[in-house]
Design a protein that fits this description.
- By secondary structure, the protein is mainly beta.
- It contains four helices and 19 strands.
- Strands 1, 2, 3, 4, 5, 6, 7, 8, 11, 12, 14 and 17 form a twelve-stranded mixed beta sheet that branches.
- Pfam families: FAA_hydrolase, Rv2993c-like_N.
- InterPro entries: Fumarylacetoacetase-like_C (IPR011234), Fumarylacetoacetase_C_sf (IPR036663), Rv2993c-like_N (IPR018833).
- This is Fumarylacetoacetate hydrolase family protein.
- It is an enzyme of class 3 (hydrolase).
Amino acid sequence: MKIVRYQTTGPASWGIVEDGVVFATEGAPFVDLRSTGERVGALDEVTLRAPVTPRTVMCVGRNYSSHAAEFGNAVPDEPLLFLKPPAAVVGPGEDVVLPRLSARLDPEAELVLVIGKRARSVAAADAWDVIGGYTCGNDVTARDIQKSDGQWTRGKGFDTFCPVGPWVETEFDPTDVGVSCTVDGERRQDGRTKDLIFPIPFLIEYITRFTTLEPGDIILSGTPEGVRPVEPGNTVTVEVEGLGALSNRIVAEGAGS
């Protein structure tokens, strides 16, 4: 099942996509969402928004050894976690803003896990039971600020620095799929989830040992090698094999204002 948030007129609503058509829903997203049978329109007749509204945006740094190596970093002994503010989340087609404070913006393609039920102290063997679906994500990073600050909150946390979408797929095997990033059609990142240092069940257990995750919260699982900077005017496309593609344009802060 593909879950979307869409907008026609008025506020965004939750929907389900079947054969390229969006249907209205009832119930709670990632818990008991179901179609009402009311046809909203084709995908190209609605505006897709971020298909999640998370309370917690958990991210995993350096979870591919190749990515750690390209920046001269050691592979961590335990998952290297950080948070993004929920205000960083944007949807497909929305602009990513290069802030005036930064001179280097890096996109990072990632598989995103969407939590489907309240999760606290979940054993790795039970991890799949608390995942409600999967989508594409972009861990946008102001690399110069990340390095100068020493900790990652500002460099990873600007508004628009967490594109997610285009939908959440509830029936999906994430254990060995491609994760790629292209910039204006140029392939830059091309990894596979089988190469994650800390696999998904381990991450769920590790994270829920210290914090509670609620339905709709998300985990960005890490990015493969090939990270390079972008500039205003570029279009970045993150693709997860079997899930779809997420595209966002880079704009300079204040452009057009």
